[in-house]
Amino acid sequence: MAQNPRTSETDTTPNADRNSGLSRRSYVRSLAAVATAATTLGATGTTAAEDDSEESSATGKGDFEVIEAAGQTITIGDGETWENKLIDMTTGQDIVITAHSSDWTIRNIGFKGENTSGTGSATFGISDTGGGTCTVENVYLGDGSSTGNGNPNGHGQTAFWVAPDHSGHIDFTNVNIQGFADNAIYGSAPGNKGGGTIHIDSCFAANCYVSHFRLATAGSKVTNSSVYVDNEGYAGRGIWAWSPGTIEVEGCQIEMNGNHTAIDAGANGQGTNVVLRDTDYDEQAGIAEHAGSTVELEGDTGTAPEAVIPSGTPTSAEEAAAGDN
């Protein structure tokens, strides 16, 4: 049985203590049937976004570059587009992509193989620090990470970490994250400082630890997305809302199979508000309201979730890198 995380994480970096010995299995659902289905502190080497390719391949709609993970950090600057990359994680080493600038785009990126580096990094450390709008779309991180953690903060690898200084807006669209040992999208830190917003749309997250979608600021929301947790992977919260809120959740499927909490509102003694609209959530996992938090149920909200991979969301690293979906 998957273990649940503690509930005392702080919000500036992925936090201390972790589980161990968990097995994991990629387990996702397509629209029709079951299918087979992070900024940190320890990466070495820094590379400009345009100088990172090792080789190129062609498939489907477009070419993509293959980058071998080798402990490097790739930095994306103001107005840059970083796209059509296949990241080879079978090297056993880490790679970190940082974008702490404005009006950048990350598109058509696939990670092939489990991250077994054990660094405890965030694969993507991002923020819009100039009040602009940034985009993350068509990204596959479905091969997950191992349980190792060389970082004193956090529980292991995080997929996306949004920094406290985020003051603009980030759109996540068609992102597939599975089996990460820390949060899938850790987007609550701007609630402490920058106040920037995040919109997660048509995304899929499964079997990640701590939480799958974690948000804090007013105007941030999750729409048309699914969370899936079974009994053989990491078992984090479905959606974790932090102060100040309000966080909107609309048109989502939160299928937890009785694990942890479907919608968790509030943390560290501070309450928030969540509006749950036209969404199905796991009644057994349920809703938790802490420190005066409220979760309002609106529209056609029910308790018969069926998590799906939203249309257009990649199901393999190659598909994402080529933009083939």
TrEMBL record:
Region entry Disordered, spans: 1-24, 292-325
Biased composition (Polar residues): 1-23
Listed InterPro entries: Pectin_lyase_fold/virulence, TAT_signal
Domain of life: Archaea
Name listed for the protein in its UniProt record: Right handed beta helix region
